[in-house]
Amino acid sequence: MNPKILLVEDNEDNLETLATFLEFSKYSVATARDGQAALDAVEKEKPDVIFLDLSIPIIDGWEVARRIRSKQGSEKIVIIAFSAMALPQEMEKALQAGCDAFLSKPMPPNALIEEMNKILNKKND
To answer: In what residue span(s) does the Response regulatory domain sit (predicted)?
Structure first.
């Protein structure tokens, strides 16, 4: 069974493109456009995987990852951060916040699925 995905992205074009790609690839996709909506969606949707833009309004992606990781049972959720800020310190900050991986924008949509599958396979071993 395909994992349930939460896609967190504030850019409408990116959100629509990635959500459409993931849905076409047979994934169940919920979306959020800001950090508070992302935290609310985690509670409501119970996603297996979160694709998390780090530069989002209200609550930034780093804080969203920290808050998710502070909850019991969150170690099962795969969090893949993505950002146009591909500096090494930004990547390290994302990993320290609790993200499992970091991808830099722009990236082909299939890179999200490849990274997700790689991490899911590791977690299931």
So the answer is: 4-120
